[in-house]
## 1
Amino acid sequence: MQSFDVMNGNRAAAIGASLAKPDVIAAYPITPQTPVVEYLTQFVADGVLESAMSEVESELTAMSMVTGASLAGARTFTATSSQGLALMYEPYFRASTLRLPIVMAIVNREMISPQTVWGGPQDSISVRDSGWLQIYVEDNQEIMDMMIQAYKIAENEGVLLPINICYDGFYLSHMTEKVFIPEQEKVDAFLGRYQPNHIILDPSRPMAVDPLTNGELLMNYRYLHLEAQQNALQVIEETDKEFESLFGRSYGGLIESYRMEDAEYAIITMGSMTGAAKEAVDFARQNGKSIGLVKLRVLRPFPKSKIIEALSKVKAFGVVDRNVSFGWNTGVIYQEIKSALYESGQFMPSIPFIGGLGGEDLTLDMMIEAIETICHASESKETIWLTRE
Amino acid sequence: MKFKTKYIAPVGGDGIHTINTGDWRIKKPVLSQEKCVKCGYCLLHCPVNAISKKDGQFTISYSYCKGCGICAHGCPPDAIEMVPEVEK
């Protein structure tokens, strides 16, 4: 029987990560991620967690340290937000191209300027093409469960890539919910131990790591890296199923479809805004509108086939982006969804929405307004900003 | 894609063999064992460790020698001659 507790998202992340028993944790505090570091430090101080915990002097060092530890064969964990992620950009890229299955929670915080500490996934979305796997979650239970699944996915032999579990700052990080805590013995059995063979700093098996490499070989590595990203599509789905059989909870794998069975219209969301959007879908259904919701859970690898399948019968769709793509005049997810559909030859009307930037609320009213617009979608493709009256 | 590596990550299990400096050579150093005074100047100065000493004799490996000519330039008895590579 799983115990439960009420906890905020940061505590769920810390407990989830500690259930995976990482050998090395290195992190530097930054709002809104700070409590993750505090909880983990407390667990180590209390003797509940046996990890080597290092409070480093910057995020650049945090990522460098877990890179070194992972190279030495350790299971590792770190967490950051926004400017912290920006500061670790170089070792962030290196961790993925060295194929190290590091798990990092990103507590999404808007990027400067203006100065802000509030939520918004502009930080992690802006580095989506750095070779990491990126999963975006909706609530605290999903944070807990995905921290555990993250290790299973990242350490899979066909994947061997680092992974981000991303959750909205404050909306999840500081919001308290009831969360079930998986049993330690079952998590141990689910995850096993990390045993690297592909890259390792081991005196008994000397190898030159990351030498100066010509383009011909580099292209080999990139080809295999792209292939590993594609392998992850299936691994994420399988891991979801295996997790469900052991712990009784499934998140639908790559995407979650809500009331899409007979839907003529669809609203696409990602992250914590999905709760309000589901309420709005229920409301619209009561008013006779045939609308469903697709929650994008995995941004990298992009679940192209699942999106094509989910939207195959809709007359129009809209995407609510809590981020911007400078230069496209829309959000990022809108462009990615459209790219997926191009391959399937589906060219239905679509509406890009932008809202909730810098921790601004995405209210039920805004979601209802978005659904209204989608249900009357014409060929117009102007971005609609969801803002307060 | 044609693969030149058995690894998925950038490692060299048997050393850094990713850049073939031997391909850069225009002239190759040829050592005359008769003129050689076994001083070891060439071995100490070769930037790619292409020169080795075995059984008291110095030999030049052309796998990595990039043809820089430092050995020939500094050789006290002028025992090393830079010979142009023949076009393959």
## 2
Amino acid sequence: MERITNEGFFRKIISYGPVIVLFISVLNKIDFNYLGLQFFSFNFVYILIFYWTLKDPKSLRYGAVFLAGLINDVVLNLPIGLSSFNYLLICGVTAYLRNITLRPNAMNDWAFFLVIILIINSISFVAINIIYAVELSYLHYLVNSGMTFLLYPIFSYIFNIYKKLFILKTND
Amino acid sequence: MASGRDDFVIAIRSAFLKKGTQQRFSLISLIFLSLILIALGSLNFKPINYLKIVINEIVYRSSFIVSTPESYIKNTYLVIKSHFNLYSENEKIKLELENLKKKKLLDEFIISENKRLKEVVDDFYLSSEKILAKVLSDKQSPFLRSIVINKGSKDGINMGMVVLDRDYLVGKIVEVNFTTSRVILLSDLNSKIPVFIEPNGVQAIVSGSGKSYGVVEFTRKNLEKGTFDKKVYTSGYGQLFKPGIPVGNLTWDDDLKKNKVEFFSDFTQLDFVKITSYQRKDL
């Protein structure tokens, strides 16, 4: 009996995996700057939110995404509300994509992802650079968008495995 | 055509207005809330500032705990890297030590003479008590080079105070909370400090580059190529820093085809920093 209860608890924790990883990512802001690689900068949170809100919106609720955005703003000292707005825009696009898609296609998702990260980074750049008059490197934003776009299929593959192994089984 | 537009409108409306399964809030309400926060934040609305301070206090501490595994991996990587570089570094240090020994004798005389002369011209600076702080978080993304320290307004930290690593300049305080503060590093794109380039006493501004080094701006046109013996010190203009705080070495970058400043302090290795402020003796 006790074993069954423990299993249930474990499954519940596993099903909260995307939310836990989201909060760890925004609190930790994993970066690889100490490696000294010049063009290695990507936004893992964008990939995470895009994938999970597109493929399994039940795993990542909008409230959690909004809160993660507020934390990200505080950690990175950005204008409060800006990251939440960006993250929720991703959620909006994925919800729209789900509504118009009959047969999901990985290439389509990838193309939509590129469009949305370009829009979001443009909004961030304009808001921070023009409205708040903080100097930013345009090249870094561009490199960051490019790397985030290129790394999407790899993370998407990993998340697919996680979803098949844990989330789908949990929902059975 | 009209049907296509209707489908688009329906899809958009469904995406933004409808509460999805197991969603407590509709997307549009949260987006509006974010926009309201941004707008009120830009207007410096006081409750938003208080909200930010409260979140800061919680998040900075949580961030420190969550970042522990990453910090451990990062430190391990740096230790391994330093082991590989041990031999070449040792040779370099030996050479440096030899040079420093030669200079030391002359320096001691110059320091005492300088102190005496400054007292004569009434340009002597007093520093406040130095506060030692631990670095809680050092998130140095390409967009932001800053650190968070575990001392805040309750420990006497004020905006604009100078932050040092040993005797080397690191940056200044840009945000003060009750128990934590944020320090903008010299390498941040928005950092600009007035400096002297010695031995010639050339005035310049060192700006952050968003990378590990600084760039020299607003200096004379025919500034010579940087060499190892060209040192950069704060000039004290603007009265924020006292003159003579060591900043870095002026070096020539062949790729950039311009001078850059290699900071004395390695900002990726900061564990503890000293915070102080300076005031002229006559003020």
## 3
Amino acid sequence: MKSTWKIALLATVMGILTLFYLGLGVDTRYIPSPLLDKPAFPFSAEGLDGKGPVVLEAKPGKWVLVNFWGSWCVSCVAEHPYLMELARKTRDRSDFAMIGVDFRDTREGGLRFLSRHGDPGYRHAFDPEQRIAIDWGVYGAPESFLVDPQGTIRLKRAGPLYPGWFEQEAMPLIQGMPP
Amino acid sequence: MWIEIAHFATIAALLVALTQIAAPLVGITLGRPVWIRVGRQAAFTSAALLTLACAGLILSFLKHDFSVAYVADHASLDLPIFYLATAMWGGHEGSLLLWAWFLSLFIAFAAWRHWRTHPLSIPYVLAILGTVLAGFLLLVIFLSSPFERMLPPPPDGRDLNPLLQDPGMVFHPPFLYMGYVGFGIPYAFAMAALLTGRVEEEWILATRRWTLFSWAMLTTGIVFGAYWAYYELGWGGYWAWDPVENASFMPWLTATAFLHSVMVQERRQLFKTWNLFLITTTFALSLLGTFLVRSGVLSSVHAFANDPGRGVYILVFMAVLLLFSFGLLVAKADSLKVEARLESPLSRESAFLFNNLFLLVATATVLLGTLYPLAIETLTEAKVSVGSPYYNKVFIPIMLGLLLLMGVGPVIPWRRVDRTRLLRALLVPTLAGIGATALALGMGIAHPYGVATAALIGFVAVSHGRDFIAALRARTGRSGDSILLAPFRLIGRNKRRYGGFVVHVGILVMAAGFIGSGLFQEEQDLLMKVGDSTTLGRWRLTFTGIGQVSRHNWDAVEASFVVEGPGGQLLLKPQKRQYHRNDMPTTEAAIHSTWREDLYIVLGDRVDDRWAIRCYRNPLIVWIWWGAGLMALGVVVSLGQGRGLKRRDS
Amino acid sequence: MSRPGLVMAFFAWLVVCSVQGFAVVAPASAETAGTAPSPGVPSSPPVPVAATAATSSVREAAPPLSSGELREDPAEEVVRRIAKDLRCAVCQNQSVYESNSTLAKDMLGLIRDKVTAGESETAIREYFFSRYGDYIYLEPTTRGANAILWLAPFIGLLLGGGILWWAIGRWQRAGNSGDGVRDVSAGPAAAGDPPVDLRDRIRGELNRIDL
């Protein structure tokens, strides 16, 4: 056996092992979104509350946090207190709004979720057939998108928002670009 | 109670396995055979202990002992007894124990069988296999224990995953594991050969049956998996190039290469290093398969997120074994006397070399396709999918090349042949190939892969058939056997050669099944209400009713279809099952199989008063199962051949 | 034909085979990409999804209600072709067509609506691609690093074949220059020349090692 072959063999084995070592740390569920820094997809959908359509304009004119959730999703329960807190804290801001999208859900399920875990106060679009969710490239819940006043998606988070998310991730962007 | 016995038995087995590593090595160093004998006893003891452990776990299932967390997670009170007994390998923990149990049984058998015949190798074999066993037992005991208690016990268990409640899935893992584990024995003998420096043919002769047996088990296991996918998953297909499937397919490919290339070493004493490399790679890929499936690096199911320790452990374990094995191979390779003396590129030896090249490239392709998404994900921010469309395009041409070589193989003699003679020998098979091409085109096969496969089936079939008939003539001419008995006598006298032929014919039958089901599948997606009917190929389907069925642990909606076909009327009843303790409904396709085609009906969701119905016509699909059967039969025939290789009867 | 010629021809045959295999796939999709909407369905410009989200039903594309003989809507063929190549993002390795998950079913419904609305196959693929990225295609693209995936197997075959051929030639010379190395298993009768014809060869093989 020539030494070239020996080196190639050992290098291949080492390479595969190294790849696995690095791969162990990767969250295989995370799918990067190609939507970052692309225009958001405006929608006008029936509200979960049944009180007229919930609308996201093409140019909303303020920062909008779009949160996809469903009553069937366990992590959404964990995330909910933070959404409540965030909604309360930002209620007086004129440059920031929140919209929920309750997808792949029944109306009763969604409403029951809100009455059990608290109603954060902003409105929710009702999306039982996931049309908005698929349009936004959502594959799980919860997922959140931060849309800037010009209608561009600036942040995406798959998985629950963590306490302090707004200050750490959203505020720098908002301060960097006044409406 | 039983679970504690099982737990202690496993811990004891680990200690015994450690003894099995140490004692033979001490024996060699000190030159005291008694110590080696201790290692042998250790092998027997750990097999007995692990048998007890498995029995304990199965008994806990049978007694519905839900205070055992593993039982509570994988069984319930109304799970049928058949699945209750086999739920033991329904989850990670239990299937790792099953792996270890098979390994211990095989070690014990090897220690008994090869004790007297291979006194020099056996201490190393015991130590190496003991290491593998200890590695798995450490995993079972510390990181993935099926023996944990959960107190207070829940009143009922969470039931076995509905998808696993199917005979195909019950038999799939044990066969697969027997295949994986079985390759451990030839691997250990190969390592022992390197360590003792006796890299002659002995280790190959000693483990020939192990290799054949493991190959047959792996083949059967893979086919059971495909069969399960076809019957249970309800999408009309049988192979999805899933990473888990690929993981079992890769060792199969390298093992196939090994089976062929050992013949060259047995006969011509060539390719010594190469064979060592192949068997090491086969076993390494078996371990890799276990790692891929069990560590969660490739799956999107997040089973191991909360326990990364398991993945790290398996990785370290694998790294140690891989670096040891390949390192040993590289270090000792130079001491092998390389006697390269191929006489001609036109010889069976070099045909086998090309066979190995194709199989190895095929393995590398599957490995690349499986690891590429992981590499991209790890090294960049992006994420890609490599799914069946990729493999179908890239893999099939490689397999076609192999089919061609399969036809040339038996025709081309050992050592050398001159070109005109070879071409003359290939003339009739080639004509048959051309005939098959014409036939295929006439039958409306338009896809080049399909035409090429048909041509090669004709080519290979005739090259094998001619060889067999010529041998038959030679035999009847000499011994005066009757025409009826002669084929059996011939096969009986040359079990290994004709066993191989039978395997090849099985592959041809399978290939026909692949073309039929791959290129001629017809399907319809319909919304039907009771009374509607539709036509699919030769079949006319009428939706006659819908009802409820309940059994054991599930309720189902069951549709009735009256099917009028060539053979008269049939009643087919596809179901949509809801298992009591699982949210996900499962589909139970109704399948009517004939040798020509399968009719396959799947009941989907209800939409108002109508039902989504998917029906498929899958031509020649049973040929795949029959082909697999023939392959298994071929191996059984081959296994009949003893070690008497240098027999002469002139 | 010379020996290298034989091997070259063999590889050329393989390459032609695979190229044709690719080629067949390409025109098939190109042909349908331009297909007009199926007859009976009014051709309409693509409807923004947001507008249809709340109102349209998943099953719009289904055949009209009528008892008796049903035939599959021709659009289903297109739906199936698209759905089989899209990955169900929440499943392990299933296509949207095969999967039973809700996301896959809703995606299938969306594809069906889009096909019925007259969107071209390429436009629908592009739609999913722009939302989910490369990940959504079960078949990796040939762009960028992905080229490795598509080329490596064939380069491996060609390179391996070449090396093997070269090595066999070298071993052959080494063997021939050696001092009459003999096939140890060969019987005395077969020590020198290769067997004469098919029957002799087989008889020879059967009589010696059973391989």
## 4
Amino acid sequence: MTPMLELDGIESGYGETRVLGGVNATVDEGEVVALVGRNGVGKTTTLRTILGSVEPWAGTVTYRGEDITDLGDVETVQRGIGLVPEERRIFPGLTVTENLELASYGGSETENRRDLDWVFDTFENLDERRENRGSDLSGGEQQMLAIARALVSGADLLMLDEPTEGLAPMIVDRVMEVIEDVRDAGITVLLVEQNVRVALDLADRAYVLAHGEIVHEATPEELRADEETVERYLGVSFAD
Amino acid sequence: MVTGGTLLTQLLNGLSVGMVYVLLAAGLSIIFGVMDVINFAHGEFYALGAYLAVGIAAALSGVTGGFWIALVAAPLIVGVIGGLTERVTIRPLYGRNPLYHILLTFGLVLVIADGIEIIWGTQPKNFAPPALLSGPITIAGFQYSLYNYFVIAVGALIAAGTWLALTETRVGIIIRGGSQDRGMVRALGIDIDRYYTLVFAFGCVLAAFAGIVLGAKQEVALGMGNAIIIPAFVVVVLGGLGSFRGAVVGGLGIGIVQTLTQTYVPALTGVIVYLLMVGILLVKPQGLFGNPEWQNHGGEEGDLLTGGGGGILDTTTRRYLAAALVGVLALVPLGIGVTYSSYIPNSLVLNVLVWALFALSLDFVMGYAGLVSLGHVLFYGVGAYATVMMAMYVTPVFWVGLLAGVALALAVAWFVGYLSIRVSGVYFAMITLGFAQLAYNLVTKFDITGGSDGLYTGYDATYGLGIGEVGQVSLLGDIQLFYYVVLALVVGSYLVARQIMRAPFGSVLQAIRESEDRAEFLGYDTVEYKRRAFMVSGGLAGLAGGLATINSFGVGPSFLFWLKSGEVIVMTLLGGMGTLYGPMLGAGAFLGLKEILLTFGESTPGLLGEVLSQWQGILGLIFVVFVIYVPEGLVSLPETLQARFGAGGGGGGESATDATDAEVSD
Amino acid sequence: MAILETHDLTKRFDELVAVDRVNLSVEAGEFRSVIGPNGAGKTTLFNTITGALRASEGEVVFEGEDVTALPSYERVRRGIGRSFQITNVFGGLTALENVRLAAQSIPSREMSVGSQLFRDKNRFDDVTAHAQRVLEDVGLGEHAETKASTLAYGDQRRLEIGLVLATDPEVVLLDEPTAGMGVEETESTMALVDDVLAEQTLLLIEHDIDLVMDVSDKITVLNRGSVVRTGTPEEVASDEEVQAAYLGGGHA
């Protein structure tokens, strides 16, 4: 089976600074794939390169058999790849409804495309805050809205960048549940997380990124058992 | 005595003026919010609307409803012109620092203004509203102008319609989202770029409409765009850049405040608006309804591009060229009576020298500390006024006046810098503009500053040596001592500025330009450094202003007119900022070109001559081309040419600009 | 004697308490590491100590002086230096000029207005010599005239440390100095820190316990904004609460 998304030798960076030095990775339909690694190893750059807001220096990005390397962000999203960006980036001056409406004007007409009614049925807290401005939402509510927004724009492949960053532990649990629901609905997820525990709990498979290259690919179980890799590249110890 | 009736009249007058501001500010604000473009040409689209309406109404004279047809057709035509303008000129600049838009749209101001003059001539046009709307009308015993009611009603209708379009339609929501976070709109798969042309065109339609309504109330005349654009900016900044609500509240508020002030506190007319703006920005830097968050995701903002620093010319070559240039300038007066009249050195070259100094002063803060001052004319004007007033009221010794001018400019720069340097980017630019406009309006109010006529004097007891009048001390024939004094002061100022940039103080400024954060964590009080740089810059500008008064035999409000601030920014960028000498060459190129165009224009008969005489428009076109293709300025041309034509390039074309560039000094 | 202390230092962002009543006491000459899982508040603590952020409550005391209200540049002048997690050097200037600017900072306060404004910056022999020494120390002597933006990434990190060193700090705060580095680079950077900053008191923010085990005198473990434990590396490593902080996460 050809993978849904395939990165082949992606090199990328900003200006003269090289961030990615040849990233190879695949994501299969229906999977949750985590991309983990320490600060500054190039996780966000990988997502931005897939999205097309950063142009790769070398390598190809293939999505459902189509070479999308040279596509800009707008065209990429129109093919069914959605992004929940770091810090969520809710439109602060638009209401919750307007944030969602705006998303519904873009994206792609995929089977996974959700409408506003579905969102309000699924996310009760958003339903209650329909007419509130984005800037008035709490961090957790903003995160829900950011995910809902990507679903409304019809993402088949949802890329989440640090969805639990800066959230209180209880809210982290809620966000994890939402991501699980998203997966159960048949949407493929590519998750970037610094919180390794969150990432491994959710993922079917994980890539470990270090200094711009994939240094390890494993299932969560394998990673948990592989103390050396985890300590070396993620700076976390699972040992008792 | 304030009666209810007159108060109501004044309020309605204020509302009708305010509606015009609302229409202008709404367009400006949306354009800025969505595209980050500070559109100085907005006032010209407003004027263009009014003139087109005059033209259409005239063509349809006799046809019933000519006014109404013009009222609809002219804005639509302006919208199309605006859309084309966006496509051709503004589109290539997206992603660059907003400063480049200022320069570009400033060029467009010159082009459109001159276009209007060529087509419609210099005489003001009368554009009367139809009989249906003329005369007063009495409602509930209160008599008031029907046309003003019409303006208020139609303005409110359009504002409400715009509001509905922004909140209730698909395009409106996309545009509002885009004004808050463009990148995120793209990440939702919406091509926001496609909407830019629409937004710009729509803004132009609103502006044109405003021009027609107000034109029919007052008159349609040249300069109407220049007169309205600054108050319109005040409204936008005061209300909060990118905020529609801010544009409405700010527009109506300013309209009413202005009208009431005229009637009840005439002393504050023209000043109150700028006082309000400066005050509000100092308390609330984002304006009344500004979204403090919109700037956070504006991370796409490009850098200011500084000149290449001479690039392929080595230091020794540049030093020789600089010495040669100064030598040539020193010899220029010797040609009087031989190849040209005394006009060339004693007026033209002197003027170039003074502006070169002014441009140098701007580069000192803009090119080195990254402070974009849109009101730099303030220091130039203050220096000029102080110099003249010292001579008139205290002592005629020129030196003392000049010193007083520099000192006062320094003090004013300290004051403005103290209040506003902590405000960043566009808001800093606007506050400086506000202060400059404040000064412009203040000097017209007082007898001591000569009111709107200005002050005229000679400086007796030249240079304090009692040999005669400044500007009249001849060395030989028409060769003036003054010419050499100015030359020495300008060259000296450049050397001093260059030395400062090589000293510890200047090195910190360059560090601040690279990364202010890092400089602060090396232990530098970066705000203080910027304030001091601003003072040095203000002092130099004050010196330029003081020297300029000799040529003009005095000073007038035009020394503080905002267009001069725009011109000096143009010169700085044209030459290549961040190099000190680039902007000085830019001043030479700007004024030299202007002179050439004027001379050819006068001697060429027919339409071509007329077009050439519109030097501003042609200069405007040149800037537009420059901003798009040579953003690093003239000093980067050798490199650019070499890159384009290979190692042997550049030698082929000894064009005017090339020749100037070859004189690039160290 | 403690050179740097915090008393109930607290930083709130709206509902989130990022740093919650943190008490630190760092001895002169100590190598202290602050570790903790992501989101523990390490960087916020760092920013509150250096003055990039204003504390919501509590105080920062440096050499007996309350510096809580001082702007960051004043803290630098008193001897609190910091490095940046993301390399932040003056890209358009040469490596030497970068370090020279740092070396010039403290002496510039003693300079007369005249020399500040007009004397050639390279004619302050002490400053230049100091800058060159620092550049040699961080191993960039050969790259003095190279534009910082064209240096290799590892060299930029070295320059970053050189910038801090050149301001002659008493205490140096390092924010994940090896972020984004490969294994070898990480090791050489830690060796560099150990070498050139041996005389300074160090406060190192780090994600990775192992990296700091060997070099630290004491380790403070932070979780959810509060101090879990402070102790020697051995004490910390065997502490149950610390294990829980790292393993506890939010979900399990």
